[in-house]
Amino acid sequence: MKLLAGVIRPYAWGSRTALAQMRGAQSPSPHPEAELWFGAHPASPAGVTDAPAEGDDLLALIDSDPEAALGPTVIEEFGPRLPYLLKILAAEEPLSLQAHPSSEQAAQGFARENAAGLRFDAADRNYRDAWHKPELVVALTEFDALAGFRNPEETLDLLRSLQVAALDPYLGLLAGQPDATGLRAVFTTWLTLPDSVIGALVPEVLDGAVRCLERGESRFALELRSLLELGETYPTDPGVLASLLLNRLRLQPGEALYLSAGNLHAYLHGTAVELMANSDNVLRGGLTPKHIDVPELLRVLDFTPVSLQALTPQTRTVGAEHVYLTPAPEFRLSRVVLDGTGLRHASSVSFDVPGPQIIAVLSGRVRVSTTDGRELFASACDAVWFAHSDPGVVVHAASANAEFVRACMP
């Protein structure tokens, strides 16, 4: 059992207040703070606060004895690496429009770019490892996102409501094939239009959205407002048009979104816990100054329409744990609320430790003890690592209210 210090990732879309306030630091922070990583990804492994040598981190700890850290079952399936990465994400501005490859696509892409001699840190590299990247997001605040291609019939209604003549060819294209094939045709056309055409089309669509809202449109009000916000930041980006094809979600605290391979998405605003396979493979399609590879994105995208219900994982309550159920073989996430007074919720929870586990404290303070007599305290934005070889654990509320998430193997 080790206390972990997460690593802040200062991307431009991050918040200057959300993570700072959670951990009780100066707010607003000097720079945007986008993500707090608790894991063993080589790019930013979490620090180990009581490591034998200064500067040791979770990656080095696992590498020093993989079998004790991970267990033989994990090593056999995933190799001597932690299969998942746990984060707290704080989006003040939209993230890029993106998707992640399947396992087969990732392995092929990684091998292909290695054979081409691309450096691992090259800006135009798509595949930085050979792994897929399913991910689960659990909202801590109201959390807005675009995810998955909407039912084409609903999208046709949205496009018609804009009353923009320049959209008629694309509307006709989708009306002629209101399915995955039609969605692929429209999306591909938009992302490959000449800059001059996009530069004229996007402002017309934005003007149409303004007129639509002025007429009192309510059914697609969220979609239209998001379109206008994206258009203000990226006025010549085809990703603005692509947002019209996607489901618009607004998660409330505790609600979740699960994204499998090939699912086009963009997180827009809010704070959430994110648990994903330990990969850095991202194919971007717009809404970003970073590298965009449209042909490769089209190769991995799944254009099958998906409902909001299909994107929402089922949950199960096991004692004090609220478990989010997904098909991902790399991880399972649960959320626990403890009550130091014992009046509303349990004041403690216990669990065994087969396989590697991490708990990250979201609020309050907890006392963690093991059956062999070890003990430590963790506060908001602290995390605790449990190796496969550790004994059973009890987590107690050390404040009136305490909340944490638990990442482990399924």
Textual characterization of the structure:
The chain is of the alpha+beta class and 410 residues long. It has 3 domains: 191 residues, Jelly Rolls, CATH 2.60.120.10; 97 residues, no CATH class; 95 residues, Sandwich (Jelly Rolls), CATH 2.60.120.10. It has 13 helices and 22 strands. The strands form 4 sheets. Strands 4-1-20-17-22-15-14-13 form an 8-stranded antiparallel sheet, with no helix packed on it. Strands 2, 3, 5, 7, 8, 9, 10 and 11 form an 8-stranded antiparallel sheet that branches. It has a 4-stranded antiparallel sheet with strand order 16-21-18-19, with no helix packed on it. A hairpin with a 2-residue loop joins strand 13 and strand 14. 47% of the residues are buried.
